[in-house]
Amino acid sequence: MSGTYLGMPPFPAAAREAVRDEVLRGNLRRATHTIRDKRARAVAELADWDRLRAAGKAVKDHTLRHLDHYLLQLEEAVTAAGGTVHWAADADEANRIVTELVRATGEREVVKVKSMATQEIGLNEALEAAGIAAYETDLAELIVQLGHDRPSHILVPAIHRNRAEIRDIFRAEMGDWGRPAPASLGDDPRELAEAARLHLREKFLRAKVAVSGANFMVAETGTMVVLESEGNGRMCLTLPETLISVVGIEKVVPTFRDLEIFLQTLPRSSTAERMNPYTTMWTGVTDGDGPAAFHLVLLDNGRTDTLADETGRQALRCIRCSACLNVCPVYERAGGHAYGSVYPGPIGAILSPQLRGTGSEIDASLPYASTLCGACYEVCPVAIDIPEVLVHLRERVAQGGPVTRDGIRVTLRPADGHTAERAAMRAARLLLDHPGALRAGERLLARARRLAPRRLPGAGRAWTDSRELPTVAAQSFRDWWARERSTPR
Amino acid sequence: MRAALFVTCVNDALYPRTGIAVVRLLERLGVGVDFPAAQSCCGQPQYNTGYRYETEPLMRRTARAFAKHAYVVTPSGSCAAMIREHYPRIGRKAAAEGRGSELADAAAALAPRVYELTEFLVDVLGVTDVGAYFPHTVTYHPSCHGLRGLGLGDRPRRLLAEVKGLDLVELPGAEECCGFGGTFAVKNPDVSTAMGTDKITAAAGTGAQVLCGADNSCLAHLDGLLRRADSPMRALHLAEILAATEGEPLP
Question: What SS3 state is found at A4?
């Protein structure tokens, strides 16, 4: 995965800043609550939602189990339809392939369809280093790009911004990238959309090369599928002469018929729409219609290693709907940037430490960025048991264990910084596994209860900084029972 | 009928009143209560923090302590979910790691006999009116593991609705996590506190005098915030409300 975010502070430190930012918390609260309520209504309309969810899970699991087969079938179908398939093992290789493909066209700029895969590999930065300008055309991505900002949500990358902030960004920045915003621009959504439309229109009409991702790839036909709301994606997918799509290998589905499931579950889960306004499908190239050259870059970047993990592999079922972000109470307070990845929220907390490994501080802290409340699992349209994977990854961080890196099975040692915790867990277990000692400990605690300080030192401070400690009872339940009930009344 | 009480380590050491309330309540309903002294912690804090191997001895101990009881009742949705949902998972992992089927067997033998208190009352005893009296305005926070892990549904609310004198008011955003989350409360104190503060603010907005829950761990977090804020509202376990009667009010 891209190094863009590495070197980030661990989640608790990054979240601390966000929690204190009242504007950010207000923006996030409003946005996530609106969309979660709408989503719940859109899902409730379907009587067979549970079956659609189970079917989506089953199709994804089947495909992942036979991924090698379906990828080869896909390659064959794309090639037969006049496209060219490239295989990229990691971010660097994918960036190199795309850069060379753009260079070969002689162009110095590309328009982009919103894509998580290209965000993941840091493609814009790689192109920029090669002297190629990449213009984001999704409205929210445009806001992020113009604001020299980072996306903070999978579906709504600028969710952390309110209208006034967006107006200021448009006014200050649009002129440097192309058509400037009108000087009188207000913060009415229609005005903002019109400014973006005029700014982007120029780019669509000029562009010779487009870069996209895909929501799905159909193995049997070699068809790519993009779902979107604005139509800007379709402009990119149909107008330019060359189209380069960078897609994670887990996005393949076996047959065209399988789309039936996801075209129902994805829009409802993500934007709470019965159907998204634009679904664009393309199969290779067609004379006189759409791009004359089509390149598909199949991206691994940690996915095969993730697939090797029995518990963690379910994260690859993800269809990037972002429903888990919108219901997550932790995401709502911490904001997307705290997760240190293009994949924030609950899915990011299980995807990033698998794709990137748990070596960095931020990645080792992500599995703990959850209360395990289960709301994410409940809304997930492909039934990823996110809490289960979180606990599994916590185990990897705290205890170490087997993991696959670059196709090789290695045994991880426990991460640094867990020594004291591990000792405490062991001590607690020794006490808890000896009820006699436990009872003595409880008595000691009860006797010392008057001495309990209001604020604790060390790790306990994290509790007492904001909360009172529970009052210790004069006698434990065990002692009460021994006195009151152990002799028959 | 006889049932064994799994009081949980948090209740044993910090909230014995909850355990005592369960005993009084069940005895009042004609259930004989056993308290196997060999019981301890279910191992959830260890498991959820990533120490699965530290969990296994406690899992064995819990299974052994309750081996003879047809009904094991616990006043904690979280600990009940640990046994029902995660014990089988831990057993399967131990077997997959080539350490035999002993843990999986222990989990399979114990899990179906464990009931969270409101499940036991509503599903096994078939009662919602337990003869309680509690003349206060109460709002109920359904803790996540009971709500989503066990699927307790409206059982707690149905029990509270039958309590004489009790005025039950709905908690806005009730199904949202309070921010406790076990070690989350100390590993991510800022987010935890922000979530808890939103929860007690919502509770205060209902005008309730009592914030009721069925998990003392969540309540310890919420009560800690309430007391730090000098709020007149108090957090109280559901069992203590159900145990209270006109003759024997809450001690």
Answer: coil
Residue A487: what pLDDT? 66
- Of residues B185, B190, B129, the one with CA closest to residue B160: B129
Interchain proximity A369–B188, CB inside 8 Å: yes
Q: In Å, how far is B119's CA from the nearest CA of chain A?
A: 20
Of the partner residues B188, B196, B224, the one whose CB lies closest to the CB of residue A15: B188
Contact status of A337 with chain B (Cβ, < 8 Å): no
Dist. CA A58–CA A46, nearest whole Å:
19
Q: Which of A353, A307, A312 is nearest to A67 (CA)?
A: A307
- Using CB atoms within 10 Å of the CB of residue B195, give its burial: 0 to 12 exposed, 13 to 18 middle, 19+ buried: buried
Main-chain phi, psi angles of A134, to 5 degrees: -110, 120
Q: What is the mean pLDDT of residues B219-225?
A: 98
Q: What are phi and psi of A321, to 5 degrees?
A: -85, -25
Between positions 339 and 368 of A, the ones with CB within 8 A of B are 367-368
Q: Mean pLDDT for each 10-residue chunk of chain A (489 residues)?
A: 67 94 92 95 97 98 98 98 98 98 98 97 98 96 94 92 94 94 94 95 95 98 97 96 98 98 97 96 95 98 97 98 97 96 97 96 96 98 98 96 93 86 86 86 82 80 93 92 79
pTM over 0.90: yes
Closest CA to A258 of A60, A43, A54: A60
- Contact with chain B for residue A469, Cβ under 8 A: yes
How is residue B249 written in tokens? 């009010």
- How far is it, in rounded angstroms, from Cα A138 to Cα A200? 9
Q: Return the residue in B152, B190, B221 with the most chain A beta carbons within 10 A, the one to mutate for interface testing.
A: B190
Nearest to B180 among A371, A375, A471 (CB): A371
Residues in chain B within 8 Å Cβ distance of A429: 46, 54, 57-58
Q: Is A473 on the interface with B (CB under 8 A)?
A: yes
CA distance B109 to A238: 61
Closest alpha carbon to B10 in B160, B174, B182, B126 = B182
Chain B within 8 Å of A36 (Cβ-Cβ)?
Answer: no
> Which DSSP string do the residues of A148-209 spell out, in sequence order?
T----SSS-TTTT--HHHHHHHHHHHHHHHSSPPPTT--S-HHHHHHHHHHHHHHHHHH-SE
Q: Which residue has the tokens 């409003």?
A: A30
Q: How far apart are the first and last CA of chain B?
A: 27
User: Out of A333, A399, A442, whose CB is closest to B195?
Assistant: A333
User: Cα(A270)–Cα(A168) distance, rounded to whole angstroms?
Assistant: 28
ipTM exceeding the 0.95 mark: yes
CB contact under 8 A, A426 and B144: no
For residues A136 and A311, the answer to whether their CB atoms sit within 8 Å is no
Answer whether A99 touches B (CB < 8 Å). Answer: no
